[in-house]
Design a protein that fits this description.
Chain lengths: 207, 89
């Protein structure tokens, strides 16, 4: 089971790891394996690069562990390392693949949401269906990086506004502005697609 | 005071996070009570936020965790064995 470690447990583990019990590092990072990978995937857009980035991020975090002073949460610190690793790699490969949307204007116009008259909730079981997961992943991947980072931390990782701000070294106000735009872009993109995704009349499936 | 739909949209994200000041929240709430379009937009946005947080989005590649720990063990010289890895054991 994935047992959440408290900050105090983590601080103790980190002290032991620094004192030479390197095996404990495997336990320390276990709750974050998924989050780091997701962050990496949303940048790299393919599984094998994402896995490389995740491995490098965990290694870097280990090597820099002595520099972690508990001024931030371990998770926040780890995510910033992952972000730097992913950004660094994209920059090195930027002659081949440009994140052209990177420069999109932050305060750019108003985003109009998709207008619907009624909205039937999409049940979370819909995620059992591969195509639903795929359209969600695609929509996140299609956001430009400044919005994607914020959405991933806040809505996927469920960091607080403050933790998101700390991980990205931006202000909480900027987090809110970007988050708002990111969510509206997601709504605009996804609501029309998901609207047709609710299973209708499940009891007549066989007909 | 009454606000228009497009102003309500600007507040939806903060409304979901409950970070609006009480007066604005009240205004938005009152608008939502009688505007079915804004309500549908709010519901769809909330639903997307909920679905996005679900762990089934972003599947991990098969063997990811094992490869990660094997690589770490090699590089940091720890004695990690596969048997440590799975919660299933």
């Amino acid at each position: 089971m994935n047992v959440e470690l408290t900050e105090r447990d983590e601080a103790q583990m980190i002290a032991l790891i620094l004192a030479g019990d390197t095996e404990l590092y495997h336990e320390l990072i276990r709750p974050y394996e998924r989050g780091v990978y997701k962050m990496a995937l949303s940048f790299m857009k393919n599984e094998s690069d994402a896995e490389d980035v995740a491995q490098e991020a965990f290694l870097k975090a280990f090597r820099k562990l002595a520099g972690f002073r508990g001024q931030a949460k371990f998770s926040t610190w780890l995510i910033s390392i992952t972000l730097n690793e992913a950004r660094g790699r994209l920059r090195r490969h930027s002659t081949v693949r440009m994140e052209s949307l990177d420069e999109s204007p932050e305060e750019g116009g108003h985003i109009s949401p998709a207008l619907l008259r009624d909205w039937r909730e999409v049940p979370s079981e819909a995620l059992e269906r591969k195509e639903i997961r795929a359209i969600l992943e695609e929509a996140i991947a299609s956001l430009s990086p400044i919005y994607r980072e914020v959405l991933l931390l806040r809505d996927v990782e469920e960091f607080s506004i403050e933790e998101t701000a700390a991980a990205l070294t931006i202000t909480p106000g900027t987090v809110k502005v970007r988050l708002h735009r990111a969510r509206m872009m997601m709504q605009k993109e996804l609501a029309p697609k998901l609207k047709n995704a609710s299973p209708r009349r499940r009891w007549f499936q066989w007909s | 005071m009454v606000i228009e739909c497009k102003h309500v949209w600007d507040y939806l994200s903060d409304y979901l996070d409950d970070t609006l000041n009480p007066e604005t929240k009240e205004l938005v709430q009152r608008h939502l009570e009688h505007c079915e379009i804004c309500s549908a937009i709010l519901d769809s946005t909330r639903n997307i936020v909920v679905l996005t947080a679900d762990d089934r989005v972003f599947e991990l590649p098969v063997g990811y965790s094992e490869r990660l720990h094997t690589r770490l063990a090699q590089e940091i010289g720890s004695n990690w064995k596969k048997s440590h890895g799975d919660s299933a054991d």
